[in-house]
Recover the amino acids of this structure.
């Protein structure tokens, strides 16, 4: 597609949207990314990601960022450990020795890598989309919260779970999975919390049993990010008249929920350095499809929000971004490109979302300890 006047607007500066922008710019196609954050440092980007060969790694190679990624990644972070509710290690898988696995990288490091690869000024910060107005013939006018507008020949919804762009294509809204994570964490873990650091290992530690569990992830810089998970009502804290800003009250409520678990694991609740953040998990209906619509498409969570137990969220978003950019480069019109891209996107994302739904149902079940051990033993 050789159309310098083409106006492409990507909504959302996450891994998928930035990957798409990077590859388009490599091929001389102009693009603007709009993001609601006030700046690139406005908020923490979350935990660690493992990049898979046929999705995230493929996208990084297409974007010409593989060498820069390998300099930042942590192959040792692929270690996977399963712990019983009694605090005993029952399964421990070391990362592959041949370097052919799924190396880890912090989300913030990955985002910075992608942002730094773009032409300065590509991302317009503080641009919170309120709605997109169809103008006809595939053109849309974007309305932002600051009162500004922008017209686009192609709008790419990379704006996550609660996507505003998705409303142009689908009435689907995210549904609560029945599982909530309470996020917490530890700084300087090896020195300040050596027992928790040793239990976590170099990668990810999981302890799952009877609809509850702990997931601890080793991040860079000696930080361990922990998710205390439970199958519960979405308003679990409201029913307890619990103020989520009251750290002491949250800690006591979680300790009550996890009564009977090992003191080794309860340390992930009591010894936090970062407080507690309530994170209910949502997913889109499966399959999530939409009719072809001129001038607009979706990628990443906007298209296929699923539980983190797929292990594929950011990986799929990046592969989506790479595939959409390739379609725009290879096809003569936007409509042709969208059709080719969605023919790949929709079946792939449906398959992944089905697997994610099965994954969270297995991880938070009455017999999840046995089911998780059987799954890990089979796959390693």
């Amino acid at each position: 597609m050789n159309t310098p006047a083409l106006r492409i607007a990507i909504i959302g500066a996450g891994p998928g949207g930035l990957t798409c922008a990077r590859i388009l710019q490599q091929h001389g196609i102009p693009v603007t990314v709009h993001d609601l954050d006030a700046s690139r440092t406005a908020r923490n980007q979350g935990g660690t990601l493992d990049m898979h060969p046929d999705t995230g790694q493929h996208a990084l190679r297409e974007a010409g960022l593989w060498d820069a990624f390998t300099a930042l990644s942590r192959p040792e972070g692929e270690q996977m450990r399963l712990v019983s509710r009694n605090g005993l290690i029952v399964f421990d898988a070391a990362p592959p020795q041949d370097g052919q696995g799924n190396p880890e990288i912090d989300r913030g490091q990955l985002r910075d890598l992608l942002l730094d690869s773009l032409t300065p000024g590509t991302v317009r910060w503080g641009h919170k989309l309120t709605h997109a107005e169809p103008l006809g013939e595939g053109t849309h006018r974007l309305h932002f919260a600051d009162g500004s507008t922008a017209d686009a020949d192609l709008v790419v919804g990379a704006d996550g779970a609660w996507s505003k762009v998705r409303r142009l294509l689908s009435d689907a809204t995210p549904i609560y999975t029945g599982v909530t994570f309470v996020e917490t964490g530890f700084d300087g873990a090896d020195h300040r919390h050596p027992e928790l650091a040793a239990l976590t290992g170099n990668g990810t530690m999981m302890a799952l049993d009877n609809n509850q569990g702990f997931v601890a992830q080793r991040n860079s810089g000696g930080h361990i990010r922990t998710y205390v998970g439970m199958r519960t009502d979405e308003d679990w804290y409201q029913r307890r008249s619990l103020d989520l800003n009251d750290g002491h009250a949250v800690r006591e409520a979680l300790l009550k929920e996890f009564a009977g678990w090992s003191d080794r694991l309860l340390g992930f609740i009591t010894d936090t350095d970062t407080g507690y953040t309530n994170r209910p998990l949502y997913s889109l209906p499966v399959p999530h499809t939409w009719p072809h619509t001129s001038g607009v498409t979706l990628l990443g969570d906007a298209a296929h929000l699923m539980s983190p137990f797929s292990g594929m969220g950011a990986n799929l978003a990046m592969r989506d971004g790479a595939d959409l950019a390739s379609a725009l480069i290879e096809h003569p019109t936007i409509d042709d490109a969208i059709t080719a891209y969605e023919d790949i996107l929709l079946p792939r994302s449906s398959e992944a979302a089905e697997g994610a739904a099965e994954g969270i149902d297995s991880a938070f079940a009455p017999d999840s300890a046995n089911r998780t051990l059987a799954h890990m033993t089979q796959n390693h």
Q: What stands out?
A: The chain has two domains: 8-74+107-174+285-363, 175-283. The longest strand covers residues 175-186. The mean pLDDT is 93. The two ends are 44 Å apart (CA to CA).
